Each structure stands twice: as C-alpha cells, then as structure tokens.
Amino acid sequence: MPSLLELDDVTKRFGGIVATNGLSFHVNQGESLALIGPNGAGKTTIFSLIMGEHRQNSGSIKLNGEEISALPTHKRIQKGVARTYQVPRPFSEMDVAGNIRVGMMPDNLWQMITISPDPDAELAIARSVGFRDSDLARKPSELSMGDLRKLELARTLAARPEIMLLDEVFAGLTVGEIEQISQLLADKRSQGMTYVIVSHDLRALEPLVDRAVAMTFGKAIAEGSFADVMGDEAVRSAYLGK
Fold first, then answer.
1. DSSP 8-state class, residue 129
2. How far apart are CA 162 and CA 134, in angstroms?
3. What distance in Å separates the CA atoms of residue 6 and residue 24, rounded to the nearest whole number?
4. In degrees rounded to 5, what are phi and psi of residue 104?
5. DSSP bridge pairs for 63
6. Beta bridge partners of 32
7. What SS3 state is found at 97?
8. pTM for the full model?
C-alpha cells in the first residue's frame, strides 16, 4: 500500500536560492511526523509545495498514491490535505462560527447556495478544539493568540482532511496555552488523525509524534524516532549548535 503522503526528490528554487534540495520523505496513515530544523531550513516551503501554493521545480508529491503536483490548492484540499499557518489567517469580519463554516463549505457553487449551515456541526468542531459555546459569536479581534491557534485548527478540521500540516502551532503561546494545544493534538492523534507538525518547541513536540525528519538548507539530514534524530550528530550541529 502506498503512503498517505509521499515526497520524492522535491526541489524548489526561488531565483538563485534553493529552498528545498532533493527532499524525500513519507507519512503513513494515522502517523504523526515532526519536521524540524533551523530557521531557513525549508520547512514552511515544503508545506506550501504540498498545498500547491508554490510549485516545485522537480520531484514528485503524491497523496494516496496519486500524483498531485499539477493540481490547484482547492483540489488538493478536496482530496484531503489541509494546513495551518504560522500567522493565523482568520476572516476578521466573521465570528468563530462563521470561520468554521467557511472551512466546511463544499467546493461547488450550487451546493453552497442550496445547503443550509449546520450549527450543530460547527458547534461540535468548536468544542473539539476547546471553545466554549459562547465563543462562537466572538470575532477574531477578541481572541487571544491561543484561541486564534485553536481557530486555525478548527478551520482546518472543518475541511475533514485526511492529513493536517501544522505550522508552528505553539508560537507565541503561554505555557498554559501550549499545554492546552498539546492535549488537543494528543487527543486527535489517539483518534487516528494524521499530521505533519513543524515547531521549534522541541519539549512540546516530542510526545506528539511517531517519527521526525530533520532538515537543513532544504535537505533531509536525519530521519527516525524523535530521540534518535535529536541525538544525531549532524542534527545537533545544524539545529542545536553543538
């Protein structure tokens, strides 16, 4: 059986800058994978390539064994891949419920017109990420950074993805908010959610993943269990400065 997500020899150049250089890795169904490395290693670029926000210069990206490199972003979302962003991107004019509703919308104009919103489904998703019922009427401007991170996760979950790409979900959070988001991700992992997660918070990251891939200068330099990867001499040199 093919992996759920598979990248093979993916290279992306921005002018003379090589952001990813022959990068290959895979993610199995139900697996959680950490993508780690120093700033500028190419981690966020990889997420953008998987989503179709950028196109690779060479290499292959497959989802469920199907090549998706030529598909636009909305088609990739339809096929089951979704992401969060380092800087949350809510619709500022919409409340929490409205933001979740947008994530649930089908990519079909007639269905958008004829299908009524499902408040129960919106509420269930909101509750699943830790929102209270009263939070659904709040605007993004009223939310803490922790709640904005939860809203990013809720919007991503609303698309019913097979795999989530989680980009720096702990950035800017308090210790208590990190614990709350970590518990949420642990719960989703136990329910079989597949995700790839990028974070510089290694302490929070370690218990949330099955494997890790370490990158530097757009290349993978180590892959394996989190402990083995963090103990790798090349990783310690590139990432920890040791």
1. T
2. 29
3. 8
4. -85, -10
5. 5, 66
6. 195
7. helix
8. 0.89
Angle (CA) 96-181-170 rounded to 5° is 100
| DSSP code at position 238 | I
Instruction: Find all residues with CB under 8 Å of 201, minimum gap 6, and list them.
Output: 170, 178
Q: Is the pLDDT of residue 237 over 70?
A: yes
DSSP per-residue string spanning 163-224 = EEEEESTTTT--HHHHHHHHHHHHHHHHTT-EEEEE-S-HHHHGGG-SEEEEEETTEEEEEE
d(CA 112, CA 8): 36
Helix (H/G/I), strand (E/B), else coil: 61:
strand
Q: What's the CA gap between 162 and 17, in Å, rounded?
A: 32
Lowest-pLDDT range, 47-51, 155-159, 210-214, 221-225?
Answer: 155-159
DSSP 4: S
Residue in the structure block whose two tokens are 């919409």: 94
For the record, the structure tokens of 140 come out as 């993004």
Q: Which helix (H) or strand (E) holds 104?
A: helix 96-104
Summarised one tens digit per residue, pLDDT across range 194-230 is 999 999 898 999 999 999 999 998 999 999 999 999 9
